[in-house]
Amino acid sequence: MRAPRAWLAAAVTAVLLAPVAPARAAEPPYPRGSSQGARAAEPAYPFRDPDLPLAARIDDLVGRLTPAEKISLLHQYQPAIPRLDIGAFRTGTEALHGVAWLGEATVFPQAIGLSTTWDPELIRRVGGAVGQEARGFHAQDPANNGLNVWAPVVNLLRDPRWGRNEEGYSEDPYLTGVMSTAYARGLAGDHPTYLRTAPTLKHYLANNNEVLRDTTSSVLPPRLLHDYEYAAFRPAIEAGAATGVMTSYNLVNGRPATVEPSLDAEVRTWTDRDLMVVSDAYAPGNLTGPQAYYTTQAEANAAAVQAGIDSFTQDGNSPASTVAALTSATEQGLLPWSEVDDALRHIFSIRFRLGEFDPPGRNPYAAITPDVIDSPEHRRLAREAADAQLVLLKNARGALPLSPSKARRVAVVGPLADTVYTDWYSGTPPYTVTPRQGITSRLGAGATVVGDEGVDRIALRDVATGAYVTATGTTDADAVTVGGTGAGEAAQFDVFDWGEGLLTLRSAANGRYLGYNWGPFVTRDAQPNGWYVQQQFKLEGQPDGTYAIRYAGYETREPWFPPNRYLTVDSDGRLALGAPTAATAARFAKEVVRAGTDSAVAAATGADVAIVVVGSMPAINGRETNDRVSTALAPGQAALVKAVRAANPNTVVVLENSYPTTVAWEQANVPAILWTSHAGQETGNAVAGALFGDTNPSGRLTQTWYRSDAELPSILDYDIAKTGMTYLYHRGTPLYPFGYGLSYTTFGYSPLRVDANGVSLDVTNTGRRSGVETVQLYTHFGRSRAEQPLKQLRGFARVSLAPGETKSVRIPLRAGDLSYWDVTRSRPVVESGTYDILVGASATDIRRIATLKVKGETIPPRSFRAPVAAWTFDDYSGTTLVDTTKAAGTAVAATAAGQWVRYSDVDLGGGPGQATVRASSDAPAGIEIRLDHPTRGRLLGTIAVPATGGRYAWTEVSAALRRTGGRHDVYLVFTAPARLDTVRLS
């Protein structure tokens, strides 16, 4: 049973703590004096008294609930309880970079863009605006527009191919912690009692791949778990900025995150405030579905509650299956009522802090009205954030900023020049400014701005009939037909290349995208969108020169999806999804009406400057359930850049995307490159402002940009130290390093002044323009017992400087900040020694170096006289990590002979005579004990592990050892697949 938080157990009067029976048959269904159908008069229940201690109010309310009512409140859609005058409550308003899915709202830059500002105060203000708008929507519809917001996303961006890269902040845990704390603090507000909204961190834990995300296991050795993953989630919880976490879909060390025991054992220890933990959507059902971790849903739901889940996000607004499973769990004795009550206390602690049970005058946030939505203030903030997130990647020979007086004819070309794309978790912007619109507005009437999207316009002719694919309208009833007799405008489509062979086809006649609609194909949508993104196709060339059209709207493993992937023509002359292979599909001839590269080159030729806007489409280039296989720019877009650059040497690339991209050719050959995220409604104005010098780009990258896909390991390998991923461990030369970003001015750094509490220096603007420098402090320790990062961010400071101005910068740094997880004793440690202090403008642009002597600890040699958890190894080869039991524990598993784990610097004393392990195996196996090398090292003995009869059937087995004393590295080498929980040498 989970112990209640100390603050919830505060002493109150005996009257208030008197137990209340779960079922209160004698209590009338409505308070006295009220009438059914009307809002009840305020009852004299203690939980309604805002002057009582919160713990007492929660206990009083929980005690008044019937068993059925208690169970009903554990679902995402918590029903109203009229007899207590309790309204409905819903968890889960999406608020990643603006309020999503509820109507028009201010849309700020994507989270990855917000983070490139390196400006926590700005991010806090953005979070505050989003929190206000969430309150505004709540005022419109309290029952459906909830105040429990699912943001920010804290998952670390260790791999740029993750389909949801734009949702996170950084590959670094410290920076992620700072940014997520700032955003969550803004969402929550700064009132000492009440919450503006209740921020929930997503997605706990180690969720950074979409492929098979509900069945893959993220393997986290102890140091990676504590120093990387926990380190990202902990700050916002510890600071009181976030009020809970959402669990992820994946498994962690073999156990589904939905039943991750660290929810209670770890996360809830980070704060004295109570937390509400929610599951991800449909994740509870995965426990008995694709994960097959439990046999029955009653068992699964009981385990989830006991692990720390308070609210089940399952089956949308239908709670029936969740209620049935939890009811069955209590009836079977799988789930004690005390655990249910604990979950309810967590839920109500948040609902009370949101002010739900208090008079409106008590809670200042209750006075927020819908007027805050899309307010002028928020529009200005959206522009400020869009300006601040821009990153100048290249600026050869001062190509930027452009001079408005000299740029009288400007070509703005490229597939993103005339569009502002939104992502899955974006809100609906009240307006948008495209890059070409922003540039046109900035230059005014005296300049000529020409544009072209640079995409091919084609017609598709059915070879069998000679008829053309033709758009007939923009509604679901307007099926696309194969009946046109000529390649007129209704038969023409603009082809957008998004890479990996994926294309979208936009009707030239109506500007809408060709898409599937679980029936006929239609041209209905203004943008590719939706969960299945049904506007994606591949034109697959055939040996005879024709094309088969593959529908690529949703590549799924789900058995219900029809096997037919290729387009045919039905008996009514409509496009249909009617063939499983290209061999049986309709064949089409592709007629190029206009070559996009030619039209873009024509626009760029003779222009004073050509601005090429390329990048990604957020619904296509990675999204939920879909990772990228490449970070390369789409081939058609890359060819466009090369053609425009050849036609006009004054070419600037604006790269608008959500993830690091391998633009090595562009870096080598284009004079200037400006990066922006999909930055919301003010994207075009921000881009124009930076290009023409109204603003000075100050953004800095929060991920390593690798030179090619060849540098990337399997996306499923989470051990960044082993794979050399992120700036922490990458030994190659990146295209752009972590922390990188140029400016229109330059900065000088004075020598460092280091003391026990931090690092100081003077920074001078040595250029001719005002600008912002982000001073970054890294450390490195080379004489550690454990492998340490090449360098690690410990702090940063943004400093705004006028030309010639100098300011003193102070970055706090204390010895405790240098701690790391010691696997030998399972606790944090600061080692004694001399640490390198590295200060610069990026992870590779180090301007000043100093040293800091730290008096900490010397880690003693290991002892194996008592059982040691096997997963606390120092190194491994081939092995993985699995669950010891379904409830708790982590063990080592070998999947093949020759795999091993190593424990460094073990003190064997005078020489142990016996080795004892706790192991399990499906078939007989052996574990060799070797010293100092896994194959050539001295063999002390081999432990025979019998077939134990199951994954969780653990047994202790021993073997005699050849006696060898002293200090050695001890290797445990598996001779066959087996699982190892503990080891002892005695």
TrEMBL record:
Residues 26-45 are annotated as: Disordered. Keywords: Hydrolase, Signal. InterPro entries: Actin-crosslinking (IPR008999), BXL (IPR044993), CBM6 (IPR005084), Cellulose-bd_IV (IPR006584), Fn3-like (IPR026891), Galactose-bd-like_sf (IPR008979), GH (IPR017853), Glyco_hydro_3_C (IPR002772). The keyword Signal applies. Residues 866-986 form the CBM6 domain. The keyword Hydrolase applies. GO terms for biological process: arabinan catabolic process; xylan catabolic process. PROSITE patterns: CBM6 (PS51175). GO terms for molecular function: alpha-L-arabinofuranosidase activity; beta-glucosidase activity; carbohydrate binding; xylan 1,4-beta-xylosidase activity. Residues 1-25 form the signal peptide. CDD domains: beta-trefoil_FSCN_BglX-like, CBM6_xylanase-like. Catalyzes the hydrolysis of a non-reducing terminal alpha-L-arabinopyranosidic linkage in ginsenoside Rb2 (alpha-L-arabinopyranosyl-(1->6)-alpha-D-glucopyranosyl) to release alpha-D-glucopyranosyl (Rd). It is not able to hydrolyze alpha-L-arabinofuranosyl-(1->6)-alpha-D-glucopyranosyl (Rc). Belongs to the glycosyl hydrolase 3 family. This is Exo-alpha-(1->6)-L-arabinopyranosidase. It comes from Phytohabitans flavus. The lineage of its organism: Bacteria, Bacillati, Actinomycetota, Actinomycetes, Micromonosporales.
